[in-house]
Amino acid sequence: MQQLENKVAIITGGSSGIGRTIALAFAREGAAVTVNYVGDDQDEAEDAVKQIEDAGGKAVAVRADVTSQEDVEDLVRKTVEEFGRLDIMVNNAGVEDQMPFLKMPLEVWNKVIAVNLTGTWLGCQVAAGRMVEGGEPGRIINISSIHEERSMPNNSPYCAAKGGVRMLMRTIAVELAPHGITVNNIAPGAIETPINENLEAHPDQKEKLLSEIPLGRMGKPEEVADLALYLASDASAYVTGSTFLIDGGLSRHTSRF
Ligand code: NAI
Fold it and tell me: For position 116, what pLDDT does the model report?
């Protein structure tokens, strides 16, 4: 039996990387999936939809900027129009723009906070509103980061946003529990996706990173998707308000070892 049979899911930032892999994994397990994209990523999103449909699944691509309330409402409305309901919301869209704190313009702070924190807050609120209205239990999964807890020099807005997503999740998990909606975070370490492409151009940085990962390698998007699948499935019915690290032990690294 498929684990997400008859379920409907939205994946924000679903045209690439971790989001795309989660969309494909959910569809493989029977969910109808809305692949959200932004800007000029329509071709990639349509390509993910085609891949799902070719395998016999159901999917649709919907453009929405997660920082816009109107767009996020539109994203949820179109999903319900297309598939009749909403069971699972994955707030995956994210950006980073690294530079030293003392040199960072306010615009960079505003943009990174808008996508990673406000976008996640909006996705949670609009999706949960629809789940409550539909009278169905629901699942919200936020892709945060090990930087919801761990500092990263030159990445202050990203760390602040992901730390904010941690407390957002903990708070609304309590508020939404009476409605049968669970809320959890997945906190990946270093995963092989476009967000980390710059590492390939800096082998010295990559080597240093790998030396800090006890399992000695970067993670694969498929490994994150497997965890998302667990959190979306019936197997995790009693799990809410938690962050799940998936980082090869990076957060537990100690340089004295
Ligand atoms: P990615 O760059 O492939 O994915 C990010 C996606 O978010 C892209 O599809 C992008 O178009 C979308 N996006 C950006 N701004 C948006 C907006 N305003 N509205 C809608 N979509 C928007 O990179 P990756 O790695 O797949 O990132 C996915 C999530 O995982 C992000 O939240 C990221 O912070 C998080 N993450 C990734 C890690 C990694 O090592 N790859 C580690 C920890 C967390």
Answer: 98
Residue 17 CB less than 6 A away from ligand 1? yes
Catalytic site includes residue 238:
no
CATH number, domain with residue 26: 3.40.50.720
Residue 65, in any domain of the structure? yes
Instruction: Quote the ligand 1 centre to 4 CA distance (angstroms).
Output: 23
Residue 120 lies in a domain: yes
Q: Is residue 255, in this structure, part of any structural domain at all?
A: no
Report which of 129, 225, 116 is spatially closest to residue 172, judged by C-alpha positions: 129
Domain of residue 81 covers 8-247
| Structural contact between residues 206 and 200, judged by C-beta atoms closer than 8 angstroms | yes
Q: Bridge partners of 8?
A: 32
> Structural domain tally of the chain?
1
- Assess whether pLDDT exceeds 70 at residue 256: no
Measured distance CA(59)–CA(53) in Å, rounded: 7
User: For 15, which DSSP code?
Assistant: T
Residue 94 CB–ligand 1 contact under 6 Å: yes
Best of 16, 63, 113 to mutate for ligand 1, by most ligand atoms within 8 A of CB? 16
Residue 48 lies in a domain: yes
Q: What is the pLDDT of residues 87-145, one digit of tens each?
A: 999 999 999 999 999 999 999 999 999 999 999 999 999 999 999 999 989 999 999 99
Q: How confident is the model at residue 257 (pLDDT cuts 50, 70, 90)?
A: low
